[in-house]
Design a protein that fits this description.
The chain has about 140 residues and is mostly beta strands. The protein is built from no helices and twelve strands.
Length: about 140
């Protein structure tokens, strides 16, 4: 927030600028709030906006969780793109088994299971982009 003091025709004004979005400025003049339209060309950002598709939750009643167990998330180790899925929903996996291959920083990275179990949910598909820490699948 920026504060300005103006004197116009002998009258003092205190102006607080709360924010400017596109052609609309939110101001407070001597304690009274105003929305002011600016007459200027809106700058178009050259940076594209990333819009990720909604993740569809898949439920398979055939998979039963272990007694007292809960799902264990497998996280993306770094940002990249999924190039190949090596397992499917309902598959039994062993610790250290290859789950998927992803491309990150122009290199193929192998994502391995860090525990044995059953693949309960796969949240990505081949070609999807992921960010570091995104849940890519769950094992029970």
């Amino acid at each position: 927030m920026k504060k300005f003091k103006f004197t116009i025709h002998g009258n003092d004004y205190t102006v607080d600028v709360h924010g400017i979005e596109e052609n609309l400025a939110r101001l407070e003049v001597n304690g009274t709030p105003y929305d002011v339209e600016l007459h200027r060309t809106v700058k178009v950002s050259k940076t594209p906006t990333l819009i990720r598709p909604a993740i569809k939750q898949q439920v398979n009643p055939e998979i039963e969780k272990r007694e007292g167990g809960s799902s264990h998330p497998i996280l993306a180790p770094l940002p990249g793109a999924i190039t190949k899925l090596e397992v499917g929903k309902g598959d039994i996996v062993e610790k250290g088994q290859l789950l998927l291959i992803m491309e990150a920083m122009k290199m193929e990275n192998r994502v391995l299971a860090d525990r044995a179990g059953v693949v309960e949910n796969i949240r990505v598909q081949q070609g999807d982009s992921v960010l570091q820490g995104d849940i890519i699948m769950e094992i029970v």
